Amino acid sequence: MHPDHLLFERIKNSNKKAFEQLFNLYYRMLCVHAYTFVKDMDVSRDLVQNVFVKLYDSRATLDIKSSIKSYLYRSVRNACINYLRSKQVHALHHDHLLYQADTIYYEDSLELLELQEQIMVEVNQLPGQCQKIFMMNRFDGMKTVEIALEL
Predict the structure, then answer these.
(1) Hey, what CATH topology would domain 3-150 get?
(2) What is the rounded average pLDDT of the residues 39-65?
């Protein structure tokens, strides 16, 4: 029997020293392996730690047919692929939200422009003095008293 399998048998029996030994044996190499996929060492460390946590949590029922080393490398690879997929989905969702926001802004801008045009059509139908008073108030920001003084 391979030494890793003996180590894993001890882990199955909740031997924390054996788990620590397995962790110390493969942790760094697995982090480098994860880094080749995700290109971020902090994320790589998190993914590898999660693989070890899952291994420990499921130790009693886990049946590893291949070597422990192969199992760990495959698990880290799968964790990296899942991470990259979720990151891609998140990016697509983010892009979609930005597109929606741009579309809403564009539609709001069009509505505002149409409203401004309609206001100008209505203002142009007012008598001359009323037009002048309205424009001084709305567009020049003058108060009623200021308009009265000027006119």
Answers:
(1) Rna Polymerase Sigma Factor; Chain: A (1.10.1740)
(2) 92
